[in-house]
Specification:
484 residues; 23 helices; alpha/beta; nine-stranded mixed beta sheet
């Protein structure tokens, strides 16, 4: 449901009203019927036969363009439809189909112009209104998209795809109850569409109606398997504390997509097979996906690590107010930037996720932002920084040796290393991949390794990292200095 909504399949072409010869009309009707049945090769042949007899037959040209679009040949679709519109510029369906092809090419403003041309000719063109809404949604003009869906539904109240996308827009606007009603109306019309069940399940999950969400998501998977639904179902089961079922869902997802880094990471949680750190691809994909909702979600879980660490840094520095060259390592969307900027002579951010870096760049607080693996980046900048902050970063590392060593490389002698990790009490391994997908660490392992890695510990505080399953997640916030 989140992210870009899917454009519905192009509408089947309608029978033309033309003065063409009877035989030509019959051939065109046959082609359209084949097209409606999904027999694209046979329909294409007949459209070309019509064009052989009349090279300026606008409908045949347009429908050839629709077939090209259905095959993913979007530029060819635009070219063919443009030829048709040059012959008959007053064809609303032609302008709407041109918009569809442009939307596939991500030429969003041109697509909007085409839909608006269609609606100027035929204000009652529901498909043009619907796909205009999809374009606006893609441009994050959600209120306008909702208006476009509503106008389409005023014309065709039983338009299931418009209802579905109306629900997506409403949920994006935090109007989940109205979105759920829209999804249920779409399902009453077309109960066999996996996407409708999936979107209903995701909306119910957002409202924490977990049993109902699980039912909808399982129904979606029965109809059609998809990575997004596996992930939502696993999350739903985890939030219900159905941990074995959540892990089985990750295993099923991995069987469906063996190369997907997310289930590959999650199936090792809590086991001896867990990697020493999360894979780069896993981290990048995870945070690219959640870049848009990351801050809202994290802050809603009581996350205050940047504030806690900057307070510790200030206390450790005492009366030293000299500006610092600061590296925000694993900067994410830049939550720490407003706190670090007043301390900085230069502020640099690095993160694996380009989506997160884009959000950080919008703050206009960093002097430099880099998309890179942070250990490799730190190793490439010897003695470049006076302070390295790893706020919500080392929870994706199990073994901390490499992170501490490369931070040591990038710090000047006496430079400050500040970080937080989730802590684990009692006996057992030094670090463990937990069922939520992040690592926890024994505090004694952290302090022992800091000393071995060339640091002096200055401050260690036991903190609450965040809330998880309505429970405080224990952690430690640490400030250390690199030894001379």
């Amino acid at each position: 449901m989140k992210g870009r909504p899917k454009r519905r399949n192009r509408p089947a072409p309608r029978l033309p009203n033309s003065g063409a010869r009877a035989a030509e009309k019959d051939k065109l009707q046959q082609a359209i019927q084949l097209h409606q049945q999904g027999q694209l090769a046979a329909a294409e042949k007949l459209y070309r036969d019509v064009l052989h007899g009349d090279p300026r037959h606008s409908k045949a040209l347009q429908f050839l363009g629709v077939i090209a679009g259905q095959r993913g040949e979007s530029q060819q679709a635009v070219d063919l439809i443009d030829q048709a519109l040059a012959i008959n510029p007053d064809d609303a369906a032609g302008w709407s189909n041109r918009g569809n092809a442009l939307l596939e090419l991500k030429r969003h403003m041109e697509a909007l112009e085409s839909y608006d041309r269609a609606l100027a000719i035929n204000p009652g063109h529901a498909d043009a209104l619907h796909n205009r809404g999809l374009t606006l949604h893609t441009l994050d003009r959600t209120e306008e998209a909702l208006d476009s869906y509503d106008r389409a539904l005023a014309i065709r109240p039983d338009y299931p795809h418009a209802l579905n996308h109306r629900g997506i827009a409403l949920c994006k606007l935090r109007r989940q109850l109205e979105g759920i009603a829209a999804f249920r109306r779409a399902l009453a019309i077309q109960p066999g569409v996996a996407e409708f069940h999936a979107n209903l399940g995701k909306a119910l999950l957002e409202l924490r109606q977990l049993e109902a969400a699980e039912k909808s998501l399982r129904r979606a998977l029965q109809i059609e398997k998809s990575a997004a639904v596996f992930e939502s179902l696993a999350t739903t089961l985890y939030q219900q504390r159905k941990f074995p079922e959540a892990m089985q869902t990750y295993r099923d997802w991995q069987a469906f997509e063996p190369d997907n880094p997310i289930p590959r990471h999650m199936v090792t949680a809590g086991s001896d097979a867990a990697p020493k750190r999360a894979g780069d691809q896993y981290v990048a994909e995870l945070f690219d996906k959640f870049a848009g909702s990351f801050e809202t979600t994290l802050l809603g879980l009581g996350y205050r690590v940047p504030e806690l660490l900057t307070a510790q840094i200030t206390a450790v520095r005492g009366t030293d107010t000299a500006p610092l060259r600061i590296l925000d390592a694993g900067c994410g969307t830049g939550l720490a930037a407003p706190l670090l900027k007043p301390l900085a002579s230069r502020l640099v951010g690095v993160d694996l996720s380009s989506g997160m870096v884009d959000k950080a760049r919008a703050r206009e607080l960093y002097d430099e932002l880099v998309v890179a693996e942070l250990c490799a980046f730190m190793a490439s900048r010897p003695a470049a920084f006076d302070l390295v902050l790893l706020a919500d970063t080392l929870v994706y590392f199990g073994a901390l040796e490499q992170a501490f060593a490369t931070a040591h490389d990038t710090l000047t002698p006496g430079g400050i290393l500040a970080f937080a990790v989730e802590s684990r009490a009692g006996s057992g391994p030094d670090h463990q991949l937990e069922l939520h997908g992040r690592y926890s660490h024994r505090p004694d392992y952290v302090t022992r390794l800091l000393t071995a890695s060339g640091y002096t510990l200055h401050s260690l505080e036991f903190i609450v990292i965040r809330r998880e399953l309505d429970t405080d997640v224990a952690g430690i916030a640490v400030v250390a200095r690199r030894n001379p």
